[in-house]
Structure formats: C-alpha cells, structure tokens
Design a protein that fits this description.
Layout lengths: L6 H4 L9 H13 L12 H7 L4 H14 L2 E4 L3 E4 L4 H6 L31 E2 L12 H13 L3 H4 L8 H15 L6 E4 L1 H13 L5 E5 L4 H9 L3 E5 L1 E2 L2 E2 L1 H10 L2 E6 L13 H14 L3 E4 L24 E6 L11 E4 L2 H15 L4 H12 L2 H29 L8 E2 L8 E6 L3 H10 L2 E2 L1 E2 L13 E5 L5 H16 L2
The protein binds pyridoxal-5'-phosphate.
C-alpha cells in the first residue's frame, strides 16, 4: 500500500476537514520527499478520501489538480499513478555540458549609469538638486492629503485621466499662465520631469537620430536620449551659454532631430541664455523644422529682477515642448512634473502615457491641487525664494571671506552669481574631481564638472555648489572644510 499519511496526524490540529489544496500539497511533498515513488500506484480514491477525512468530491478535485500539475496520472479503470518524472525535476535536468549554456540576455540597454544621491547622510551636502526639505510645510500639506484620503473620488480608484488629475491640470495651467505666460497649450502631468524627458525621447527619437545638447549637461536627460538610440551632438558654448552660430554649423552638416536646452539657468553652469541667443536658436529650429525641448527645471527661483519668459511662451511655430518639475519646490521624491506641448505632441504623449502606465498617482495630484487652490503652493514658493536668495548671498559672502583670508591665499575662486536656481558654478584652481572625491571621504558630498559630462574627464576645474538645502551655519562650515581640503591638495 502506498504511503499516504493520515491527514489528521499532519498539520490539522483542529481536525478540520482538509481542503483540496492541502491534499495537493501533502501528496506533492510525499512525492518530492520520495515517500511515494515514480510509477507507484496510489490507493483508490475511496481509501484516500477516508485517510484524509474528506468527501469524495474534494479528493477528486485534489487528484485532478495533481494531474494538471503533472505529479500524477490517471489510467482509466486502473487507478492513479505517480508520474515517472517530477514536473519540477524535469526543469532541473540541464542539457549535457556540451549543450549547456548559461542564459545569455539580450538587453536593449543603452542607458548610462547615473549619479544617484547616496542614501547615507553626509554632514555637508552641496548637491544642488534638492531644496531645503525642512522648510517644506508638511503639516499644511498633510491637511490636504487627509482631505483627499477621507473623501476619495471614484476617479482616484480607476484608470483614465491619462493626462493627469483634472483639478491639478487646471490649477497648474493657471499657475503657468500667471507665472510665466505659458498659455493655450494642453498640459500633461508627468512622473517628474525625467519621465517627461523619457516620453519625449521615446516619441521623437530613434536609432541614429541626433540631439543637440550643451557640452556639459544633465546626464539623466542625455541617458534618456541615448536610450532611444540617439546620438548627442555637443554644441560649443561660452560664458553666455550655447552658441547659436556653432549650432548653425552643426545643422548645416548633420541631421539634428531635437534641441535640448535648459535656457533659464543652464545646467550645470547656471548661465541664462540671452534673449538674442534664444531668438537665433528658435529661428534655426524653425528653419530646419526641429523641435526644442525646453527643460525649465529651476524656473521658480529667481533672485535678480524678473526671469526671462520661457521660449515656449512665444512659440508661433509651435515647436517647443516645455517641461518643468515640482522636485525643487516640494522635494524630489514627490515625482510630479509637467509637459506643456503643442496639441499634436500632446495627443501622441497621451497615447504613450497610456501604454506606459495608464496614468500617474491620482490622490497625491489631487492633494497638490487642493494645496494650490488654497494658495499654499505659491505662499511656500514666495517663502522659499526669499530663503534661498538669503542663502545665496550668505554663500557668496562666505566664499569672499575665505578668498580674502590669508590662510587660503593659494586658492583662487571664480564664479558669477547665478540669477536664480539652487546651484552656483564655482571654478577653483585645483583638480575639482580629486577634491570632490577626497571631500566625500570626509563627510562632504559635492559634484564636480566630470559629473555633467558623458566622456571621461580626468581632472576638472569646476564644482557645482548647491546653496539652498543646508542652513547658513552648516553651509558655511561645509564650505570652510571643503576649501581647507582644497588648499592642501
Ligand atoms: C536639468 C534638470 N532637469 C530636470 C530635473 C528634475 O528632474 P525630476 O523632475 O525628474 O526630479 C533636474 C533635477 O535635478 C535637472 O537638474
């Protein structure tokens, strides 16, 4: 007689009747452990039902499941038998060594490995991509989130609204119209602006296409272009940013499919592209029928007069795709950005969004919309602009003091105060790549020029010094420590 354990003696202390799945599991492990052998005949279904203290139908359900999984087979009018080969063990039987190969994956992987801020805390953090989290009004924002959670809408739970949560779309459109004259263009809420850049790349670029970019730039955007198969054409720039004459030369010889710009504060050098240069670049784009992807990642922070309006605010040829982010206003983890695009591009992006992920998270978007409607968003912006303006001035005076002090008379610091944004582009007469790497071992996180290029830079002359996220005291102590390391190089 085959080994079929009494169900009660196994794991059913409450002496409940076994479910068919429990019987499947018991018989299967009896086979795996060798208590039931390949080819062995099982007791009749009547006997097994008795052993398991179940009705006949439950037992038959279990046997059918085991047959479906390949553990046993049934021979008509003869009975049930353990299969010759265990279904799992067949999978473990590898081909002979000659045939055997380890799996060779074929990835479409054209992405770069990107800088990600380490999880660990640094005593001093000068990475400029993050605002001061401590100044974010979490308690105020939480009230709106609680309201959304307490009163969810059916649309929060369902698919649909691929462009974004309707209240957020209309609040954001109003804000963009008031703050930077972006009007009469459909909007799409994205999962941060990286998602926006990725979607635009997928939509517009293919293998071998060329994208005109600055010589130093935002690596995640470059990686997205390359992921679509595109090549980068680096355009020479000077202290006024990307040079339109150089762009014109490239247009004359190469088929360029997209121009990627961060005109407000060029990333990473913070230079504002002049109106004259913007106009020239726009004219070239019109002449060659090439779209401009305008990444206005830091627009809200402006410390000298009024910011220049985005190129997208005056776009008669309808060729500018304008993107922005809330990463610098709330915090990078919030993953909300937007794309304001000409209608045909918007339509195509919507289809892409649906294909990628249907829609983005709705409740967070609605909480944000309520915060905007309540005026909290712009209140927070006003406060943080003032805070970061003060911090920039303090960073400037710290750098000046150090430069003038006798201790560091070997060091030469050169910088232009940025008109806005969260970072300062600082030239130091040492190898900044080496400086950044030593600083890291001493609790200071900072990016040097090599982080903004995809070619190997052996030594670099610049740092991008964030000035917004740390308190003034912390910023000052960090700069002093950093420059002390620099003066010993
Ligand atoms: C040039 C540039 N674009 C976009 C972003 C923002 O990206 P995201 O919205 O994906 O956080 C950043 C962030 O640092 C940036 O520097």
């Amino acid at each position: 007689m085959s080994f079929i354990p009494h169900f009660k003696s196994l794991n059913n202390e409450a002496h409940q009747p076994a479910s068919y799945l429990q019987i499947v599991s018991i018989i299967r492990s009896s086979i795996e452990q060798g208590q039931l052998l390949s080819g062995e005949k099982l007791p009749s279904s009547r006997v097994m039902a008795k052993r398991f203290s179940v009705g006949r139908q439950t037992l038959l359900n279990a046997l059918n499941e085991l047959i479906a999984q390949g553990w046993i087979l049934s021979r008509q009018r003869v009975g049930y038998f353990v299969a010759e080969q265990h279904p799992v063990s067949q999978r473990h039987q590898l081909p002979s060594p000659a045939q055997s190969t380890t799996m060779k994956w074929h990835f479409n992987d054209r992405c770069d490995t990107l800088f990600t801020e380490p999880e660990q805390e640094y005593q001093y953090n000068f990475v400029a991509g993050t605002p001061d989290i401590n100044s974010f009004p979490f308690a105020e924002f939480k009230r709106h989130f609680a309201q959304v959670m307490n009163y969810p809408l059916p649309s929060d739970f369902s698919y649909g609204n691929a462009a974004g949560q309707p209240q957020l779309l209309s609040s954001m459109a109003g804000y963009l119209r008031r703050s930077r004259n972006i009007t009469a263009r459909p909007l799409l809420i994205s999962n941060g602006s990286q998602d926006a850049i990725y979607m635009v790349s997928r939509l517009l670029l293919g293998i071998g296409d060329r994208v005109a970019v600055d010589q130093l730039g935002y690596q995640p955007a470059w990686s997205a272009f390359k992921e679509s198969g595109a090549e980068l054409v680096k355009i020479a720039s000077d202290e006024q940013g990307l040079d339109p004459d150089e762009l014109a030369k490239e247009f004359a010889t190469k088929r360029i499919r997209l121009i990627y710009l961060t005109p407000q504060y060029q990333y990473p050098t913070t230079v504002t592209l002049s109106t004259e240069r913007r106009n020239k670049i726009y004219q070239l784009a019109v002449k060659y029928g090439v779209p401009i992807l305008e990444d206005d990642y830091d627009h809200e922070y402006h410390y000298q007069g009024q910011p220049l309006p985005p190129i997208a605010s005056e776009d008669p040829a309808q060729l500018v795709i304008y993107i922005g982010t809330l990463s610098k206003i709330l915090y990078p983890g919030v993953r909300i950005g937007f794309i304001s695009a000409p209608p045909p591009v918007h339509q195509a992006l919507l289809k892409l969004r649906q294909t990628m992920s249907h829609k983005n998270e709705s409740m967070l978007q609605r909480a944000l919309a309520l915060w905007m409607i309540d005026g909290g968003f712009e209140r927070h912006l006003r406060r943080s602009s003032q805070l970061y303006k003060k911090r920039l001035a303090h960073t400037d005076s710290t750098l000046r003091q150090i430069q003038q002090s006798n201790i560091n008379d070997k060091l030469k610091l050169e910088y232009q105060l940025p008109a806005g944004g969260l970072g300062l582009w600082l030239r130091i007469n040492v190898d900044c790549k080496q400086l950044a790497s030593i600083a890291r071992t001493q609790g200071i996180l900072i990016q040097d020029q090599s982080c903004f290029s995809d070619t190997k830079i052996m030594s670099s002359g610049y740092l991008r010094l964030g000035f917004a996220r740390q308190s003034e005291n912390c910023q000052q102590a960090g700069i002093e420590k950093l420059l002390l390391i620099a003066s010993n190089l």
